[in-house]
Specification:
The chain is built from eight helices and nine strands. By secondary structure, the protein is an alpha/beta fold.
Length: 245
């Protein structure tokens, strides 16, 4: 779905739960790549965001970061978190490639995920036994490489390794986020996870050319023990939004 459809759909689902821009704290776990302008649309609806993530969208702030984030929640307020790795899709239909403003040739997206796949492949082909030594000048990329390496056979044996690698990172972001959130949290929390699809563009001013593919949409009220699935509500809201926009 496009950014306007996503924004309108989220409001349709969350507003009946009492979630508004004024009483909701917005957080994201997305890659810092400047091409991810689509999420700027959500700032119009939910305000400025707390960023949990670094390269590839992995939430490197951890439990300490989430505790700091949650402490900023408005009185009697709510939390909304969006997490999403991203992948390019060029006009030629090539996943992992996208033309950026000012560049005639496609470049990689997500560069971190694709770079990790390339590095792990090179290491395995050279039969390197160095493992994954920690380089504190580039530790985030080292972590992405470890994730790719742990899922390497699944990735390279898939029909589209770039897409599969992105899905692997998506699952890891989701796992870490849910480990960061206290099981007994007493703040209403909505979590939307998906994959951003970046398309060729001539300018960063427009946020309507990219797409968001939702994978998970969960909600937990302040008295609830478990999260409940909101995907069907989101699909219905998106269908209505697309007919209007």
């Amino acid at each position: 779905m496009s950014a306007p459809v996503l924004s309108r759909s989220l409001t349709s689902v969350l507003a009946p739960k009492g979630m508004t821009r004024k009483n909701t704290l917005y957080g994201t776990a997305t890659c810092p790549d400047e091409i991810n302008r689509m999420l700027d649309q959500l700032k119009k609806s939910w305000g400025d965001c707390f960023t949990f993530s670094g390269l590839a969208g992995l939430p490197f702030t951890g439990k300490t970061g989430f505790a700091a984030f949650a402490s900023h929640t408005p009185d009697n307020g709510n939390i909304f978190i969006l997490f999403a790795p991203h992948i390019g899709l060029s006009s030629e239909g090539v996943f992992g490639k996208v033309r950026r403003p000012g560049m005639n040739q496609p470049s990689g997206a997500c560069g971190s995920i694709l770079g990790a796949l390339k590095a792990v492949t090179k290491r395995r082909e050279s039969d390197s036994s160095n493992g994954h030594p920690i380089d504190f000048t580039d530790f985030q990329q080292g972590d992405v490489e470890r994730i790719i390496d742990a899922n390497y056979q699944r990735i390279v044996n898939s029909p589209n390794p770039e897409v599969t690698a992105t899905e692997v990172v998506y699952n890891e972001i989701k796992r870490r986020l849910f480990e960061m959130i206290p099981k007994d949290i007493k703040i209403p929390v909505a979590i939307l996870g998906g994959i951003q699809v970046n398309t060729d563009r001539k300018s960063y001013k427009s946020d309507n050319t990219d797409f968001f593919v939702p994978r998970d949409f969960l909600y937990k009220g302040d008295e609830d023990d478990l999260f409940t699935d909101q995907m069907e509500r989101l699909r219905r809201a998106a269908s209505s939004a697309e007919s209007v926009l």
